[in-house]
Specification:
722 residues, alpha+beta, 17 strands, 43% helix
């Protein structure tokens, strides 16, 4: 199905068609253009969905195995594994090699190489029928200029766009395979728009009317429209909501860079106006969009006011315009402007390169949100440039209200990054409680007695020194008393208790984000001990029970403090032990009648019973030249290691009506992170086998820790001597 990507947004056409300041003919023309836009909006979505489905299918068929073929080849001949393991590795290797050959053959068939794209310009003869496009050929690649200004402008500007992509990003035409580009001018009668037609794979330009014109002469317009096609071949964002706004944003970004390149403007000197030359004299406006100041491009009674927004505080879910793709694209647009201006120089030198590499990184899905896209640009900035460049990009996103990944403030990120190596539980929890987001939870006068009692007389593991006065004291003590499951002391009024309960829900939501961010920071540092401890605290906070204590039994519905004491007196201290009892033993220990025992065992059948095995198969030999990684200390070697994860439940484990996620951390004997994995327990069905590379000294003891998130008592450990 075709789709059309219009440079003039629907809200502008709607404003023109509804304004009483316009003549009937102008309103009818705008209404007709709007009708055309709406008719193809659904087709645009369908087309992109088809592109996405095709890409998914292609990815499923591509031979890109997780385990490299040279590893499988080594395992298939290794004397250190069983015959069964060697046979399975050989079978897998044969399958992967065959699949790779088939994929390459399919990719090569029918695709002869081209040296350069060819441009062709057609005269649509003022037709409004897509079936009559492209029209009459009036200028082909290499032909001399014609007497038609629109034809020559379209020819030259398409060439400028293609040259920009080739020279700046080494990208050939819109598909990187030198695809030919067709354009049709003189579409419709006084048609005030231009668009990219996905089915015909061509640009279409109207001649314009009372307010809007000169589409073929605007290089940023052509850059915008052709970039939609480039996006299809890189990160095909769906055309709805935030992904759709990102689609529009990418086209604006590359359109404005092309305009600035033509005009030799640096980021600080440019006007950052999209479609500036499309607005005819007499209109109270400067362009179709203003990336520097979204919402200020025009304000004319015949047009209405520019509705774009430039900050997430103004983001509201909407139905029109596919969820506001032309309105909310102003938010990432301003972020790009801020980053480019902060870098100085030309916009395509740093900011443009970061956005381009992000688009091609493969880390974006078709449903990527602003937050996910922002996070990807920061990661790319750090990878391609350095930390200072990444901080500049991060600040640009922060300034438009998009907090990266965990939606945490910069002071919080700085404080989390300052944590010492291999922190213990207390340090992890205290550092998390010092997050700037918790400053909005001060200790009120009515709460002072409560927190003094919690600190001095409840037996929490980590009391504070001195009086509890700071907001972080409140969070630190509140979480500890909750994890003891002893209840809050009766040192606060009923109204104060209700208010504290409301605050508590928000505190735990923020704490989850803070701890996950801290785990990522420690993981980036390769601090395996720190990651393990942080995940331990995160698990405890989410379960509201300390990991490694007999209070894990309180996670079971129907077991309170009294029943837990009966069980622990009988030396039943874990959920796994409880699940191993017969139903009548449970009823006897807890003094309950049938069918209590059966009901309890039915509940416990969903508690994840994880198991893990780690074994070293052989030395790892790099595929290229057999050289060892220069960044690895000479006393360490690389080992091909087999990791098997699974569960012993009869059916898929579900706890609290959900299938839990699990984390695996492998660390060296000095606490450094060797491997990390996270996935849903569904992926362990029939066991999950991974071949991983671990860098360790011969004779070193490595520790593997596997546990479910949000549940205590699932933890299993495995120690292996290399």
């Amino acid at each position: 199905m075709p789709y059309r990507c219009y440079i003039v947004p629907p809200h502008l056409l709607k404003a023109i068609s509804e304004s009483s300041h316009n003549s009937d003919s102008i309103r009818r023309a705008a209404l007709a253009a709007l009708g055309s836009h709406q008719a193809f909006a659904a087709k645009r979505k369908n087309h992109i969905e088809q592109v996405i489905q095709s890409r998914r299918s292609s990815r499923a068929q591509q031979a890109s195995p997780f385990v490299p073929t040279h590893v499988l080849r080594h395992v298939s001949h290794s004397e250190h594994v069983t015959q069964e393991v060697r046979a399975n590795a050989a079978k897998t290797l044969e399958h992967d090699l065959a699949l790779t050959a088939e994929t390459q053959l399919a990719a090569d068939v029918g695709k002869p190489p081209k040296e350069a794209p060819r441009r062709s310009i057609y005269d649509a003869g003022h037709t409004t029928s897509e079936r009559r496009l492209p029209g009459k050929l009036v200028r082909a690649e290499g032909d001399k200029e014609t007497n038609d200004k629109a034809v020559n402008e379209a020819y030259d500007n398409v060439g400028t766009v293609l040259d920009f992509y080739k020279d700046t990003f080494k990208w050939n035409s819109i598909d990187n395979m030198n695809m030919d580009v067709m354009s049709s001018v003189h579409f419709g009668e006084q048609y005030e728009n231009a668009f990219w037609d996905s089915e015909e794979r061509q640009m279409v330009f109207g001649d314009g009317g009372e307010f809007l014109s000169n589409f073929a002469g605007c290089v940023d317009v052509i850059g915008h429209e052709l970039t939609h096609a480039v996006t299809e071949h890189t990160s095909a964002f769906s055309y709805q909501g935030q992904p759709g706004a990102l689609n529009e944003h990418i086209s604006d970004v590359f359109g404005i860079m092309i305009k600035q390149k033509v005009q030799d403007e640096k980021a600080e000197d440019a006007d950052w106006l999209i479609g500036e030359d499309c607005i005819l004299p007499g209109v109270k406006g400067v362009a179709l969009r203003n990336m520097k100041a979204p919402g200020t491009a025009y304000d004319d009674p015949r047009f209405g006011k520019d509705p774009q927004v430039g900050n997430m505080k103004d983001y509201v879910e909407m139905y029109e315009d596919n969820g506001g793709v032309h309105i909310y694209s102003g938010i990432p647009n301003k972020a790009f402007y801020l980053a480019a201006k902060a870098f100085g120089g030309y916009s395509w030198e740093k900011a443009g390169q970061i956005w381009w590499q992000t688009l091609r990184s493969g880390k974006l899905s078709e449903n990527s949100t602003f937050l996910q896209f922002a996070d990807a640009t920061v990661n790319i900035a750090k990878k391609e440039f350095d930390d200072d460049v990444a901080k500049t990009v991060r600040k640009a996103w922060d300034d438009v209200g998009i907090r990266l990944r965990y939606q945490l403030s910069l002071p919080t990120l700085r404080s989390l990054s300052a944590i010492d190596k291999a922190p213990d539980r207390r340090k992890v929890l205290q550092t998390a409680c010092l997050a700037a987001e918790f400053r909005s939870f001060p200790i009120s006068q009515a709460e002072k007695n409560l927190f003094r009692e919690i600190n001095d007389h409840t037996g929490i593991p980590y009391p504070i020194t001195g009086p509890a006065t700071e907001p972080w004291h409140k969070v630190f003590l509140l979480i500890q008393i909750d994890l003891l499951r002893g209840g809050w002391p009766n040192k606060i009024s009923a109204n104060g208790r209700k208010e504290l309960m409301r605050e508590s829900a928000r505190i735990y939501t923020v704490m989850d984000r803070v701890l996950r961010c801290l785990a990522d920071i420690l993981g980036e540092r390769e601090d395996g001990r720190g990651v393990t401890v942080t995940l331990d605290v995160l698990r405890s906070v989410n379960a509201k029970v300390w990991e490694g204590t007999e209070m894990e039994l309180l996670q079971v519905e129907g077991i309170g403090a009294a029943k837990m004491k009966r069980l622990t007196d009988a030396n039943i201290k874990t959920i796994k032990q409880l699940a191993g009892l017969e139903f009548y033993h449970i009823e006897r220990l807890l003094s309950r009648n049938p069918p209590f025992g059966h009901q309890m065992l039915n509940q416990l059948s969903g508690f994840p019973l994880l198991h893990m095995q780690v074994s070293v198969i052989s030395n790892y030999t790099p595929a290229q030249n057999g050289n060892q990684d220069a960044s690895m200390p000479v006393f360490r070697q690389s080992w091909v290691t087999r990791v098997v994860l699974g569960y012993s439940n009869d059916t898929l484990p579900t706890w609290c009506k959900r299938s839990p996620w699990a984390t695996l951390v492998i660390e060296g004997d000095d606490g450094r992170l060797l491997w990390f994995w996270r996935g849903n327990v569904k992926r362990m069905e029939s066991t999950k086998v991974m071949f991983v590379r671990l860098d360790a000294k011969k004779g070193e003891s490595i520790k593997a820790t596997l546990a479910c998130e949000g549940i205590v008592g699932t933890l299993v450990r495995f120690t292996l001597t290399v």
